[in-house]
């Protein structure tokens, strides 16, 4: 039985969007090679311990902070709020939740002002800020536009053992669910939740957590993503392409998952849809639908289900990972005991059913 | 020891390009749905037993003939030759080779005139023709242009047990090798051979044969191929997507393999390179190079190696399939006993080598 | 001296986005050919007098209503509001402004419920509604996806004589300015204003008005727009391509302007940028900057400046057109007495300056 | 009455394709900025007077030589021939034609061996060579692939006063006509001629000549060309975009014309069609067809018709320019006395005809 996070009596901060991730990396030079030389993110500022990066169309100081540290992990999931007062609101909100809260008027990273960081009820280090340094928005700097250009930060994806618990907590915080994956027993495997008018600012993936599943940047068009694959091939690091490219069922976006030198997972993502209407229809997928994760039925590699990055507490120590107790999406869909269908009517529901299965995907 | 096909004393016909494939299908209505409704090939003519199809930029009568029959198979691999006299040359050439040869002034299919069909030394039904009916070239009929439009026939791909034997025979016939896959023991696993100025008009894939591995049509751009996947997802036939989309190492083309209702394999292909210079460099790939078949290191599904279509003799009976005696590409590269690398220098050559392998691809 | 529209004391309705346009057309069959056969908009419903159309990713009943009538004109610019109560708010808001207001519980068009229509202070027929019928969102119906698919309604564009007056009125209504075009004398030529998180839901173009300048639909990628041009060429209606394709300076979107059978202007549009942050930087362009309207410096055809569609009052009669008194953008930038530059520093400001001008564009 | 070039009694050399252009530029640093920094051509070799450039998929030493000189001009149009003996054939062929011929065993440029250069009957400096240094073919070097990457040299375009005379001479030399533009009086305005299996290796444009109209490089996809425009906008050199982007009627290619610092015209070009069959249908366009030069009916700027680069004789002196005596395409199609139609049936043939004309293009 899920032990829900209580709804605070004070109003939630008005969150605008996911804004940046702070990532601890163990070898800053190698990470720079990956994020700057390979992916072409733009350096706003850097010193020997930290690199501040932004995407092509960003006007705030950074979307990604790479900080050198002993253990690869995510140190902060930062959201921008609508007004300076919303930082106060965030502080009050989490205090009422009984969370550990830290407020810094001067911010936790360069370029960002008054901020609050919390260890949230799911164990994630969340940050809320309004004040931020504006920098050159490169939108029309096509002289700097690479063939695989990353133009926006799109979303975070968090692994948590109890998805309904996390979902309720995030809905209280003002997020709205665009899509989810369930089964007929009522188990929820994942949920996609947004503040800005896209499919998500963050998603919850059921699994051992709290962990960072991935951070996603978007490109303008699909060929930009293909170029990133091609470039990784040319650099002979195709083994860092973990999954894709493909078309998601959930979100309808064209996607790619790649791994940075520490194993942090980066998604490259393009062309989901508008979700800004108050009654935007929520899409629920059957966990056994073979097209939910890849619209073309291509298999999800096991590592995508099992691997993720540690997250840090406010002292910079890794949060302990709690095991998911409910059924895992991998177990119910992959391998000999799993079950998936392409055409629902073809499927008998038994492992021997062959109609509607992806040919050649069995191992 | 390879038993080579002798080089005839008479000149080979001057082959222009691969021109059409005649395919026997068991359910014409289902095949029409696949090739016309799904893939959008254009019907030049049809009757209750046969459909003549062409691609968007084609001006000859057809690139694909679907003929209703009891056993799914390839009935003819037809090449266009440069002059009417080259049909005579083809007849003389194969007669000297001792092959069974049939000449029909009125052609074997509608729209095609004087032709010769042979059972070639590898067991394939080859056709050579010059005379052909010209039809409307749809090149600028953008009112008929679908999002996944197939604009040209690109190539055939044939499975044959002894690749060097087939290669020598095709080189005598005037084909030139653009790329091949070998190992350090001198085994050849596949070869790509062209007459027109692309990477191939046909390729030889080592395996049990003679069989048709696939026929390939090209699109203008990569997004056209992605649309075909998306459409198959929408039609809930994603289980007919066998492999891809991806970027080939060999040929550098962006590709997709799908299966028609009889299991005939169709490749959708775009953006290989110019090969028309007399000294066009031949590219040789190491069979253990994990990027040779997919530049991004994505795995080749086993069915792609093992499944293929029967081919017919001139009486319309399936040719017996002869087992390949040499090592198979699948055996040496897939699974526990196979070996592949991404970065050659990382690889110790032993099955335990982990550097440079595709993460998550092991099963 | 601008006679500003007063700010009402009651709160403005919370507008979500531009939602649909009602267009009067004189020949419904011809218009159907244009919007359905050529552009591929999807018919939700139709009868002998009216066609209700929606874009690929839309889930509300329609984005465009074509209604047969004697005079080609725009009958309503409809916005969706956040709650049913916002319709009340709209009614009160415009009543206080002294505008003519009509409320219909059953809506003004099929598929839409309780709505209010007004003759706004600029003379435009604005509609506000919340209740709307949900219909199938075609987002993943790639079996219906055409090569030039229109996936969303993006914005309206209105011609009005006094842009600062219109801007102040729309800002009061909750719109925020993303970009504008001015000159050093303080004249404003155009302004782009948004509620959803794109560059605009509507724009104000300085000129004789009130008139509809255009309605814009977006595509996923740039090639989709090129296909629409190609298809219009194939149909031999290239004379209905008025301007483009090109890259806008303002908005950074890739664009095309075409004309429907009545001369209503349609823009096809893709890839502007995110504007959802509260401090999204406003971009101001110099009217003499040759790249403001087309980033590549291609000339704007005169008709684009001078032609626009009439708008109707609530009785269905055309609103009288009031002449713009300030300088026109065309006059100050096109032809012998106009002035434009590509590189500001090159330009002497005199008509004889040749550096930085578009070669070949002089006529 | 055309004074045709006689057909030599000796066989023509077997030309494979257009291979490189030697261009004299007046400011090497500025030209380097244009071809290397802007367009991303790859430097094979360079010294203080000369830069040798190649496209992404090229394996011969260069496709473009930039040589510093006092007068901007084209110094050589170089074709590759099939065998070393074809250089002898070329020498004999032009000697019989009475042309000035120069043979250099060591070649005229670095990287190229035994070559013959001639002043051809039309006054152009043609070169023929077989021997050439192979260099790294960058086809899969996606780490070097820019967003606007030029992947192949596609063709030359030459201005000559008498197109039928030039056409007959080039047909004798083995070129085949893919398309041409004529009028009902039998005047030929332009012809496209190929050796490789594309629409052209060179084209003849009727006008004052001999002059170089342009050299064309191809990209993989249409968005690559759009990126070049976008980049020129970002660099504030949009005034060097002369015409386009657009879709050609002739050739069906997507195109762009830009001007280098000396005014040499470069076309960027993609997606014409296969012409390798012996009976490839020739397409003839009516000079009054408004879609022949731009499929979307966009106007051709006057400079595109009138401006072109000088060509040099074998002493490096500019060839005198001879005036075209026949009607000019510009005069018969542009401006008050010209005539064009979009739909042939609409056109009365009189200047007052308004149906089927491009709206907004009149000046």
From TrEMBL, chains A, B, C, D:
Superkingdom of the source species: Bacteria
Gene expressing this chain: hpaD
InterPro entries associated with the record: DHPA_dOase_Mn/Fe, Fosfomycin_Res_Enzymes, Glyas_Bleomycin-R_OHBP_Dase, Glyas_Fos-R_dOase_dom, HPCD_C_sf, VOC_core, Xdiol_ring_cleave_dOase_1/2
Keywords: Aromatic hydrocarbons catabolism, Dioxygenase, Iron, Metal-binding, Oxidoreductase
Cofactor (UniProt): Fe(2+)
Assigned EC number: 1.13.11.15
Family to which the UniProt record says this protein belongs: Belongs to the extradiol ring-cleavage dioxygenase family.
Domain VOC residue range list: 17-131, 152-271
Keyword Iron belongs to the record: yes
PANTHER family xref list: FOSFOMYCIN RESISTANCE PROTEIN FOSX (PTHR36113:SF6), LYASE, PUTATIVE-RELATED-RELATED (PTHR36113)
Gene source species: Arthrobacter cavernae
One Gene Ontology term of the molecular function aspect: 3,4-dihydroxyphenylacetate 2,3-dioxygenase activity
Protein's recorded name: 3,4-dihydroxyphenylacetate 2,3-dioxygenase
One Pfam family, short name: Glyoxalase
Entry keyword NAD: no
EC category name: oxidoreductase
């Amino acid at each position: 039985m899920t032990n829900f996070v209580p709804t605070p009596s004070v109003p939630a901060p008005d969150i605008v969007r996911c804004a940046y991730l702070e990532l601890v990396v163990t070898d800053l030079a190698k990470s720079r090679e990956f994020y700057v030389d390979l992916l072409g993110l733009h350096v706003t500022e850097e010193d020997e311990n930290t690199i501040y990066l932004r995407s092509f169309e960003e006007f705030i100081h950074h979307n990604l902070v790479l900080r050198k540290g002993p253990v690869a992990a995510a140190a902060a999931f930062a959201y921008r709020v609508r007004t300076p007062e919303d930082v106060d609101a965030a502080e009050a909100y989490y205090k009422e939740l009984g969370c550990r809260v830290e407020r810094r008027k001067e911010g936790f990273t360069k370029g960002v002002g008054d901020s609050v960081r919390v260890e949230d009820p799911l164990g994630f280090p969340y940050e809320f800020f309004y004040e931020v340094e504006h920098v050159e928005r490169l939108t029309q700097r096509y002289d700097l536009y690479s063939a695989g250009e990353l133009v926006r930060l799109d979303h975070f994806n968090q692994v948590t053992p109890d998805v309904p618990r996390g979902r309720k907590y995030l809905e209280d915080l003002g997020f709205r669910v665009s899509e989810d994956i369930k089964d007929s027993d009522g188990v929820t495997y994942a949920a996609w939740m947004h503040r800005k008018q896209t499919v998500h600012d963050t998603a919850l993936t059921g699994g051992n957590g709290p962990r960072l599943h991935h951070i996603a940047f978007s490109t303008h068009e699909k060929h930009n993503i293909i170029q990133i694959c091609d470039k990784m091939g040319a650099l002979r690091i195709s083994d860092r392409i973990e999954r894709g490219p493909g078309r998601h069922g959930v979100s309808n976006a064209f996607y790619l998952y790649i791994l940075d030198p520490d194993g942090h997972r980066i998604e490259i993502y393009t062309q989901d849809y508008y979700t800004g209407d108050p009654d935007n229809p929520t899409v629920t997928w059957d966990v056994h639908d073979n097209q939910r994760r890849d619209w073309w039925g291509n298999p999800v590699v096991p590592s995508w289900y099992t691997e993720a990055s540690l997250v840090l507490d406010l002292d910079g120590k890794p949060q302990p990972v709690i095991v998911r107790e409910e059924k895992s999406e991998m177990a119910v869909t992959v391998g000999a005991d799993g079950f998936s269908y392409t055409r629902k009517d073809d499927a008998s529901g038994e492992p021997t059913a062959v109609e509607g299965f992806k040919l050649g995907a069995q191992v």
